[in-house]
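haha ok so turns out i had the wrong file open the whole time. this is the CORRECT one, sorry everyone. sequence first:
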Amino acid sequence: MSRDNDGLGGALLFVTGAAVGAALGVLFAPRSGGETREQLADWLKERREKGAELLHTVKDESHAKKEALVAAAKAAKQAYVDVNSKHHEHA
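then structure:
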């Protein structure tokens, strides 16, 4: 599980670095202030939308993994109960 978190953290750092780099590129581009602000606002809006999509995807995947883990735990518990009940019947 730690490995999954490391991947997500690395991806988050990469996205953050890319965002900072792109923002600096936009700020230092040879455009008028109004054009730069408009372009930056559009870019930020797009990043927010993509970030919201990524967050939604991560939440969905986390929920699915949690459900799979709960189902596996229930199956393991039932298998344990079944094995123990058969063992006691034969003893």
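The chain has one domain: 2-90.
again sry for the mixup
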